[in-house]
Write a structure and sequence with these properties.
This protein is α+β, with helices and mostly antiparallel strands and 259 residues long. It has a domain of 161 residues: CAP (Pathogenesis-related Protein p14a, 3-Layer(aba) Sandwich). Helix content is 32%, strand content 18%. It contains seven helices and nine strands. The protein has a four-stranded mixed beta sheet with strand order 4-8-9-5. A three-stranded antiparallel beta sheet has the order 1-2-3. Strand 6 and strand 7 form a beta hairpin. Helix 3 crosses helix 6. InterPro entries: CAP_dom, CAP_sf. It holds the Pfam family CAP. Keywords: Membrane, Transmembrane, Transmembrane helix.
Length: 259
Amino acid sequence: MGRRRPGDDSSESDSADRGVIRTLLRFFVFVALIGALAFGTAMFAPTVLEDLGIDGDEFTVPNSTDTESLPAPSSEPPPTGERNPAVTDPADPNQSAYETDVETVESETVEDFVHAEVNDRRADHGLEALEWDGTVASVARAHSYDMADREYFDHVNPDGEEPMERFTDVDDYCRGYGENIAQTWVDRPVGAPGGDDTAHYQSAEALATGLVDQWMNSTPHRQAILEEGDSPTWDRGGVGVYIDDDGAVYASHNFCVEW
């Protein structure tokens, strides 16, 4: 296994009142919700095949001593945008990383690739590229870290906060806000999105493609990316990735429509 590298450094009536205020002040809040936890786990937390006791004949894990069997390292990610915005989420963990036999998979690089990959998928459907938003990304990254730290996988955190609330706690310039989340692992064989194949993400670029594939293979998440169904036309977006000590990867892709 690899190793993680350290990162850079009320009451019911009140809740109801806040809900009414939010309804009046916000034009809309779009969240691509997971239908049920079991469905979300199956679709967005691919099964680690090693944990199922499947023997080695069922899949191939690259041999760390055989460099010829290793996949290529990541290419240079396309530039995204402002990485140090004036406003950030206080819970933003900044960068996290995990070392594989191919490269050190850094969360920031994964975010760059996810942003570029999402814009490529949008371009394939005649949509304009989303502008990178560093503040939105910081809020997204803080949520990814919180899911890993408190061991849950949901749009609503254990404190009852929804995506829009998490954003408005930090800043307030989005009249519409959306969120896609995903969970997988780096440097472990997992079920590949959209089929019966397996995947073994050992580079930031491969991991990013796998995350976007998960979203594109789920109707509500795909609709959020491609602005279909009830999804609004987004202005900007931000990606937040957190890689845990054991290689667990939590990703949040958040969308914004400015006032």
